[in-house]
């Protein structure tokens, strides 16, 4: 292994690998916040439910979202250069299901669920989101079956409440533990 100020180079060695099934099964035990990620370009909108969103750094304010390459969101977000992360409150399980494509609602009518507005970029913002993070696309990266969108947060709106979680392949809510 060589270490420099900007890069870490690891010698390639034969390492055991795991199956995709074992990997996803293991990660299903983590508890993640649930967000609906949205974008708009011209007269088109796209959105999906994700649990793969996290902060990258605070200065500049950057976050990342992972989206399957087959999802229409990818092309639309690339074209528009913007997206929003709507962190869902615990009472928005039905909306999360709609944007996950699990209901019988057609993709083009997903935005009929919920009340939407915009902030600085014009990406759709859910009015009752626990947190809305309005982003311009900073960069993207393709890894395997997914595109990672790095977003610079240019506007934010917050409310109070409990977040909707996803763990063990189902939705969950926070149960506060007394300190």
Automatic annotation (TrEMBL):
InterPro entries the record matches: Flavin_Rdtase-like_dom (IPR002563), NADH-dep_flavin_reductase (IPR050268), Split_barrel_FMN-bd (IPR012349)
Highest taxon above the source species: Bacteria
Pfam families: Flavin_Reduct
Record keywords, A-Z: Oxidoreductase
Keyword Oxidoreductase appears in the UniProt entry: yes
Gene3D superfamilies in the cross-refs: Electron Transport, Fmn-binding Protein, Chain A
Gene Ontology MF annotations: FMN binding; riboflavin reductase (NADPH) activity
Domain Flavin reductase like: 27-173
E.C. number(s) listed in UniProt: 1.5.1.37
Protein name, entry field: NADH:FAD oxidoreductase
Name of the gene: tftC
